[in-house]
Design a protein that fits this description.
about 240 residues; Rossmann fold; Arc Repressor Mutant, subunit A; 2 domains; about 20% strand
Length: about 240
């Protein structure tokens, strides 16, 4: 299957390098060099992936990501961020980016992230789609798999793509303990050493959004020394 990928990157040499490697994996690639051109391209056709630099001339990548997420159709977004810009990475994830790579990065790592995003997209379109669409109810928490919506005590909760994927993965198997490395593989598609902080930060943000008391979670529970599980009731565990 030929993938359609939009690269929004103003650094000419980097954009060309990404284009070459993405084409080598069989993708059709379009490159935009600033935010306005990136937005026009993003809205012009369906895409399998948008690779988006945060620092862009004109409209920056964060605003562009926000505009992309206003579309009805869901498009995976992989953000490119400068080293040390933790705030930008957090904002990008909050706005709905699926993943991020910190500059300078190796092409091998970026291509692994791209392939992981495609594996997850393919899985959503597989035979598991029906099971994944079944609604989930646990205490005051409700998950609508078809709309990818979450309600807590009747209140809509705005989750990023990864926060939702993480919650749904745990909630569909209550009581099952997931090691951290396994969750990274299932939700992010990779298990590189040193990336557990990505999982922990997502769990912490998720708890702040769905738990009445994030320090005493009732839903996403820590299993010390192992990972996490979903429990329907009772405050247990802490991060």
């Amino acid at each position: 299957m030929k993938r359609n990928i939009l690269v929004v990157e103003d650094e000419k040499d980097l954009a060309r390098l990404l284009e070459i490697h993405l084409r080598d994996m069989g993708a059709e690639v379009e490159v935009a060099r600033d935010g306005e051109a990136g937005l026009a391209a993003a809205l012009s056709r369906p895409w399998d992936l948008i690779i988006l630099d945060i620092m862009l001339p004109g409209m920056d990548g964060l605003e562009l990501c926000r505009r992309i997420r206003q579309r009805k159709e869901y498009i995976p977004v992989l953000m490119l961020t400068a080293r040390g810009s933790e705030l930008d990475r957090v904002l990008g994830l909050e706005l709905g980016a699926d993943d991020y790579v910190t500059k300078p990065f190796s092409i091998r790592e970026l291509m692994a992230r791209v392939k992981a995003i495609f594996r997850r997209s393919d899985a959503l379109g597989s035979g598991d789609t029906f099971a994944a669409s079944k609604p989930i109810r646990a205490g005051g928490l409700a998950i609508d798999g078809e709309r990818r919506e979450v309600l807590v005590d009747g209140r809509n909760v705005d989750l990023t793509a990864k926060e939702y994927d993480l919650l749904e993965r745990l909630a569909r198997h209550p009581g099952r303990v997931y090691p951290r490395a396994q969750l990274l593989e299932l939700v992010w598609g990779y298990t590189y050493d040193g990336y557990e902080h990505t999982l922990v930060s997502h769990v912490n943000r998720l708890r702040r959004k769905i738990e009445r008391d994030p320090s005493r979670p009732r839903y996403v529970v820590t299993v010390r020394g192992v990972g996490y599980k979903f429990a329907e009731q009772g405050p247990e565990g802490e991060e």
